[in-house]
C-alpha cells in the first residue's frame, strides 16, 4: 500500500538520533499507518525530539500519545500529558511559555530537550520489548551528545530502563524510584519521576508538588555542575 502524504518534522536531531522515515518496528509502522488513515491530519510519523540542541537537561518520556504527540508532531503536545510538564519547565526557567499547543506556537525550550524512549505511537501505549530495543539506538545517539554534568529526567520506569540501556548501564544497578537520582558517568545524573500522565496526575500518584520537587533537585544539580548555568538564573521557582 502506498503511504499517504504526511507532514514533515522540524527536528533538532541528526540522522543517528532520529529518522522520520524509520519503519524498523513493523507492528508500530502498520499501526501508525492505520491511525493516519482514520486521522489524515495527524502527524503519524516517528516524533522527533523537541528542544535545545545544546541541552543540559534531557527529559525522556515513554512514547507518543495517540491524540497528543502522534497528532501534533511534538512530544507531550496536544493531550493532557504535557500540561504539567510544560508548566513545570516554564516555572523552572527551561522554556519561553508555560504551554505547548502545537509545532507553530513559537515555544522554545532553553537548555532542555524532550525525547521519547519509543518514537512511534504504540497500541495501548504499550511498546514491546523489541520495539524499545529497536528505538534505543536513536536514544543512545542522542544521549551521547550530552555534556559533562548533564541531567536526564526519566518519566516512568520504561523510560528509566531505556535510558540506562542507551547509556550501556545495567538497570539492576540503578533501580527506579520516584524522587531518586542516580550518579552516572562524567558527572551526569539520572532523575526518576512517575510519568506525568493524566492517570497519574488525576489519581495524585504524581502531584504538582512532587514533580516540582524533582525539578528543584535537577536545577540544584545543574547549578552545582556549572555554577554559571544561565538558565538556572532565570528560574521562576522559589530558591
Ligand atoms: S519506534 Fe523507533 S525504531 Fe521503531 S519504527 Fe519508530 S522510530 Fe523506528
Question: In words, what does this structure look like?
Answer:
This protein is of the alpha/beta class and 239 residues long. It has a single domain, classed as Uracil-DNA glycosylase-like domain (Uracil-DNA Glycosylase, subunit E, 3-Layer(aba) Sandwich). It is 33% helix and 10% strand. It contains eight helices and six strands; from the N terminus they run αββααβαβαββααα. The protein has helices spanning 26-38, 69-72, 81-91, 129-143, 157-166, 198-202, 208-225, 230-233, and strands at residues 50-51, 57-61, 112-116, 151-155, 181-183, 189-193. It has a six-stranded mixed beta sheet with strand order 1-3-2-4-6-5. A hairpin with a 5-residue loop joins strand 5 and strand 6. Helix 3 crosses helix 7 and helix 4 packs across helix 5 (157-166). The longest helix is centred in the C-terminal third of the chain and has 18 residues, at 208-225. It is globular. Residues 228-235 have low confidence and may be disordered. The structure holds iron/sulfur cluster. Iron/sulfur cluster is lined by residues 22-25, 28-29, 46, 118-120, 131, 134-135.
Structural features:
239 residues; alpha/beta; Uracil-DNA Glycosylase, subunit E; 6 strands; binds iron/sulfur cluster
Class from secondary-structure proportions: alpha/beta
Small molecules bound: iron/sulfur cluster
Work out the radius of gyration.
17 Å
| DSSP strand content | 5-15%
Mean pLDDT: 92
Separation, N- and C-terminal Cα atoms: 56 Å
Report the biggest beta sheet as strand number plus sense, adding barrel if it closes.
6 strands, mixed
Low-pLDDT runs of 5+ residues are 228-235
Give helix and strand order, one letter per element, not per position. HEEHHEHEHEEHHH
User: Which superfamily, in CATH terms, is the homologous superfamily?
Assistant: Uracil-DNA glycosylase-like domain
Arrangement of strands in the largest sheet: 1-3-2-4-6-5
Extended strand count? 6
Overall helicity: 25-40%
CATH topology (fold) name: Uracil-DNA Glycosylase, subunit E
What is the overall number of helices?
8
What sort of overall outline do the alpha carbons produce when their principal axes are compared?
A: globular
Amino acid at each position: 500500500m502506498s503511504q499517504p502524504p504526511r507532514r514533515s518534522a522540524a527536528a533538532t536531531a541528526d540522522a543517528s538520533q532520529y529518522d522520520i522515515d524509520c519503519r524498523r518496528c513493523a507492528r508500530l509502522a502498520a499501526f501508525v499507518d492505520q491511525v493516519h488513515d482514520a486521522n489524515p491530519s495527524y502527524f503519524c510519523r516517528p516524533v522527533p525530539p523537541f528542544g535545545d540542541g545544546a541541552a543540559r537537561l534531557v527529559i525522556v518520556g515513554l512514547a507518543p500519545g495517540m491524540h497528543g504527540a502522534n497528532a501534533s508532531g511534538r512530544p507531550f503536545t496536544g493531550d493532557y500529558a504535557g500540561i504539567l510538564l510544560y508548566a513545570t519547565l516554564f516555572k523552572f526557567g527551561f522554556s519561553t511559555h508555560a504551554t505547548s499547543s502545537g509545532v507553530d506556537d513559537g515555544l522554545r525550550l532553553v537548555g532542555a530537550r524532550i525525547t521519547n524512549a519509543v518514537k512511534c505511537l504504540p497500541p495501548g501505549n504499550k511498546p514491546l520489548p523489541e520495539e524499545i530495543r529497536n528505538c534505543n539506538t536513536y536514544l543512545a545517539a542522542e544521549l551521547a551528545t550530552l555534556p559533562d554534568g548533564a541531567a536526564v529526567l526519566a518519566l516512568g520506569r520504561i523510560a528509566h530502563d531505556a535510558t540506562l540501556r542507551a547509556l550501556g548501564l545495567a538497570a539492576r544497578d540503578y533501580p527506579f524510584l520516584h524522587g531518586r537520582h542516580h550518579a552516572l558517568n562524567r558527572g551526569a545524573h539520572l532523575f526518576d519521576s512517575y510519568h506525568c500522565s493524566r492517570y497519574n496526575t488525576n489519581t495524585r500518584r504524581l502531584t504538582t508538588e512532587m514533580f516540582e520537587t524533582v525539578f528543584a533537585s535537577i536545577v540544584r544539580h545543574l547549578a552545582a555542575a556549572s555554577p554559571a548555568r544561565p538558565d538556572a538564573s532565570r528560574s521562576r521557582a522559589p530558591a
